[in-house]
Amino acid sequence: MLEHVRRLTALTPTINLSILETNLQRCQWVNQFKQILSQMILTGFITDTYAASRLINFSTHSNFIPFYYSLKIFNHLHNPNTFIWNTVMRSHLEHHNSPHQAINFYKLFLLQNTPPDHYTYPILLRSCAARVSEPEGQQIHDHVVKSGFDSDVYVRNTLINLYAVCGNMVSARKVFKESLVLDMVSWNTLLAGYVNVGDVGEAEFVYDRMPVRNTIASNSMIVLFGRKGCVVKARRLFDLIEGKDMVSWSALISCYEQNGMCEEALVLFVNMNVCGVMVDEVVMVTAISACTSLSVVLMGRSVHGLAAKVGIQDYVSLQNALIHLYSSCGEILDAQKLFNGGVLLDLVSWNSMISGYLMCGLIEDAKTLFDSMVEKDVVSWSAMISGYAQHGCFTEAVTLFQEMQLLGIRPDETALVSVISACTHMAALDLGKWIHAYISKNKFQVNVILGTTLLDMYMKCGCVENALEVFYAMEEKGVSTWNALILGLAMNGLVEKSLNMFEKMKNTTTLPNEITFMGVLGACRHMGLVDEGRRYFSSMTQEHKIEPNVKHYGCVVDLLGRAGLLKEAEELIESMPMAPDVATWGALLGACRKHLNNEMGERLGRKLIQLQPDHDGFHVLLSNIYASKGNWSNVLEIRGNMAHHGVVKIPGCSVIEANGTVHEFLAGDKTHSQIKDIELMLNVVAAKLKIEGYAPITNEVSLDIDEEEKETALFSHSEKLAVAFGLITIPPPAPIRIIKNLRICNDCHTVVKLISKAFDREIVIRDRHRFHHFKHGSCSCLDFW
DNA sequence: ATAGGGTTAG
């Protein structure tokens, strides 16, 4: 080592201040720096405090010298002066993102009996501000007062900033008021504090009383107006600014963007370029974000091109925004190209790419990338879990959540929401309850989204009591919360309570939306409240100015149809501004059958089968109409057509009893004993039905099932029907598979309707899409939202 | 030396 040093110093035997300055100016590599350092140690020049401070200053400000070098030099100094201490502390704060270390160095500094100067405290106060740590800041404030630097205007301004950043405007204002000297920075800092806490009144008060209003102050006000949704005020202020700078434009553009006025944001961005104002990566990120919201990939490409032209395309934030843009617009290859070619990628880039893949449905690619990550954060896990949940991979979502638990990573709200929604879809009540307990145990804040998701889960799993508990415990409730409550109660048959809750909602400031009215109209339908249904329907359009959607119409058509108002129902269908969906027509056809209006039923049924021959529902509805009149030859004709069109489906669903017990019915991982109960039930029904003299139309149906389908599910719907009519015996239990995208078919409906009639028992069946509520041999459905 | 603008998971 010593030999090495000697060899190096032999090249430049002497050193003094001017040689040091020259050498440092030329220094571009770590080895050159090492050479200078060795020389200084060997000549003893390092003990010259000023020379040492030049060396430290250089090393902390260069980007090629590792920070531990600076610290090593620092440790070798015998008597570092205040300047050197300040340099090291500032370096921790500014270049190494460790304000905590800056404060630790201050503690060492105090032990040295070296007096701090007026540069020392601003550095420390900024460190506290960076950590948003008011108690630490308060301590430094005490030191400031003791050391007498509290009259320094720089120190006072950084104190105002500290309290402002921590949101303590009382203290910020106190420091401001007690200042003998106030400059523009003091005013702007106080103003920025009120902007930070979102206090428009106080901010305007300060802004109006400023002796001089410069561009920085006006820009702050634009930001505030933008955050508060006062777009017009922001624009007016922008137009009044004499010397608009890049930040003024940037602030207004992001004001538009944040308030959903993305076209205006882009127009302003183009204008900014036309006016020859310089653009940087910050304003470009905002512009790209606006392009993403509007899905205008071409505009995004031109911003990308501009960034390349200006030479700032390598900024990580810009690349991340572009990855997000391209994957949102389905241009996943462009996103991938950016990601693979990115030089300076960060965690956000990886997370954006993962969510980009997920957005495009490339689940495997997302998982591969996720697995290859060396360092994952909560966002990575949440993105992956919620991606799984959104694509119906509920088992995978839950498995990944459990993996995350095993690694001891605390999930965030997104992960919890996603996994609860997976539980909702799978009717995995036990796991859902476990997660609820986990949330309570770990003191997670149950906010609107999380609370609503839990409430929704309990409602959709039939646990009304638990759902209500969650509802009442929630401090803040959003429209989605009320919707989950109102719809959930209606779904579970508590219709009166559902309507009561809607009346309660009217007393709050939360306005109902189209989903709320789905619940309300659905409740009226369950109860057969024709007048109320009509009234709510008109209040939705008249008072609340909500355009009814297909489902709203369908609901009212069903309500009218059930009440026997077939003509009115048909007229409503004809008045619809959009094409009626299958359920709407189904409601009217079902009503025709119930009210024995064969003329209308046959007319509509024949028309619909012609329009949509591949839909099993219409065939069944028409055959039911014939069956109710005993026209068996017509029934067989329609059933034959069904087989011809290949529309016989395999069903699957879960049955939820009023007490919340969930039975997997026809599919799902359940024990044989539960199936046996159902078998037993069906056989009893079969016996009853036979006595009542139903015709065995199921002969035909069971023949329609092909061998392949038989292997897929243990209970095909035709077998069930056959069982119900006592025509065949149940085959020995085979392993039951979970069938995805379960859908209750019409024959399954028929069976359960019969059960509900025979046992005079209400049954609620839930599949992936809706609740089926069976009562007295008829069924009404409420769709999920 | 202290004051103003942006992005990612749902």
From TrEMBL:
PROSITE patterns: PPR (PS51375)
Gene Ontology annotations of biological process type: RNA modification
PPR repeat ranges per the UniProt record: 183-217, 245-279, 346-376, 377-411, 478-512
This protein's record includes keyword Repeat: yes
Keyword Mitochondrion: no
Occurrences of domain DYW (ranges): 693-785
Keywords assigned by UniProt, alphabetized: Repeat
GO MF terms, alphabetically ordered: RNA binding; zinc ion binding
NCBIfam families in the cross-refs: PPR
Record family assignment: Belongs to the PPR family. PCMP-H subfamily.
PANTHER family in the record: PENTATRICOPEPTIDE REPEAT-CONTAINING PROTEIN, PENTATRICOPEPTIDE REPEAT-CONTAINING PROTEIN ELI1, CHLOROPLASTIC-LIKE ISOFORM X2
Name the UniProt record assigns to this protein: DYW domain-containing protein
Organism per entry: Vicia faba
High-level lineage: Eukaryota, Viridiplantae, Streptophyta, Embryophyta, Tracheophyta
